[in-house]
Amino acid sequence: MEFDPLKTRDPGTGLAHAPSYWAATAGAAPPDDGPLSGDIEVEVAVVGGGYAGLSCAYHLAKAGVAVAVLEANRFGWGCSGRNGSFSRASLGRLGFADWVDRYGIDAARALYAEAEAGRLTVRELIRDGGIDCDVVEGGYLKIAHRESRVAHLERDYRVLSNVYGAPVEMLDRAAIEAGHFRGTEAFGALCYKDAIGLHPLKFAHGLLRMARDAGAKAHPSSPVRAIARDGEARILATPGGRVRARHVALALNGYGPELDRATRGRILPVLSDIVVTRPMTAAEKAEANFITSHMLSDTRELLNYFRRLPDDRIMLGSRGPLRPTKPALDGHRDYLLQTIRRKFPALAAITADYFWGGWVAITLDSMPHVTSAADDAQLHYAMGFNGTGVSAATQGGRRMAERIMGAGGMHPALSGAIPRMPFAAFRRIGQALMFAWLKRQDERD
Ligand SMILES: Cc1cc2nc3c(=O)[nH]c(=O)nc-3n(C[C@H](O)[C@H](O)[C@H](O)COP(=O)(O)OP(=O)(O)OC[C@H]3O[C@@H](n4cnc5c(N)ncnc54)[C@H](O)[C@@H]3O)c2cc1C
Prior knowledge:
The strands form 3 sheets. Strands 1, 2, 9, 10, 11, 12, 18 and 19 form an 8-stranded mixed sheet that branches. An 8-stranded mixed sheet has the order 6-7-5-14-15-16-13-17, with helices on both faces. It has a 3-stranded antiparallel sheet with strand order 3-8-4. A hairpin with a 2-residue loop joins β10 (226-230) and β11. Helix content is 33%, strand content 23%. By secondary structure, it is α+β, with helices and mostly antiparallel strands. The chain is built from 12 helices and 19 strands. The chain binds flavin-adenine dinucleotide. Residues 11, 47-53, 70-73, 77-80, 82-86, 90, 223-224, 251-256, 259, 272, 274, 305, 317, 357-358, 360, 385, 387-390, 393 line the site of flavin-adenine dinucleotide.
């Protein structure tokens, strides 16, 4: 059973990966530097070994900065090794069109440029590091799950092409059925042509290898229990030893938001769960015409995201239960399987081979933040990726490294503090009410 980051600050020590399809197919992890044993001194101590932490460590080490990354479990153990595998221009939870309403056109363009930079950073790292992470070129379809949602997608299409110049197109039902799949909840789709799918854990392993090759130290099974000040230095305590550093870079996202005052009470960790089926039979695949290589999601606020995997399994994920109890998780596994069967009647007999979940990090403004603590210019964080962090967390780690090395320039919507959650102690109650409301909205015509 999963730990709950709002109940304990301890995500475990040296735990095995979640029982995911990705963990089963990633192969061996590259070497690391073993658990921290004894005291060390570095310029920057990075806490958290997902995309944000590893990317931060790589970009610092590449610039010649002495850096160590401390991970409580294994590298990629959090979201980064167990996500839905979609990599595209993304930044938080809002739609690109919503940015125009909230921030105005110029700011929205700056934010889109940052999201696009994240997409390109992932490609650049895969290329520069020769990371073999099963990249599937194709694109991403956002699919209207009700007839009424086609108009919403058409609005997004207009904003994306006119305001951002994004490579998008609209598909009608016939085009979806001919080129992607036949299903019950597909009335039209907005196609983003520049998204990719990748193997999330292989990508994390690639970043680990690149960070170490550049000179970073990488210590798994090294949970940071406390961070203290000692004059100009920061001291990080782990069970095996202490790190003395000039800068601390927190990359904990939904897995450790309560560790330090800087991020405490500012993030709502929310479970997202995934089921992966057995491979489709040839007859099932033909009947559903499930030939697409695109990443897919529907237009629900409580999103269903799905794809065909290279071995013809179907992966489908969605928001999980409020708390990771066994009955709740069992119920959610069934719900995800039933969702596949409902969306694709040709797969009525499909069964599940894998089920797992992870904590995504929701923020009040739905945006990620890369910044420094208000009362400590040597403590930085890149967190709050709102469930869309494959590109954004990789980019966020890079931006955190650049910030530590003195660069600025991010839009204030991203470089300010994460807004504090009102009534933070009651975050789960707020979540329950919000989810019930969103579920009703999602099923309205
Ligand atoms: C099921 C699921 C599906 C998703 N699908 C997608 C998708 O398709 N596309 C997309 O863009 N995004 C997706 N996401 C989100 C994306 O995976 C995350 O936004 C991204 O991986 C966050 O990376 P990170 O490095 O910030 O955090 P994480 O990868 O979560 O890493 C945080 C790490 O911090 C470590 N840690 C915690 N406390 C401590 C401590 N005290 N000391 C040391 N280490 C500590 C944890 O062990 C963990 O490994 C999904 C997430 C989930 C859970």
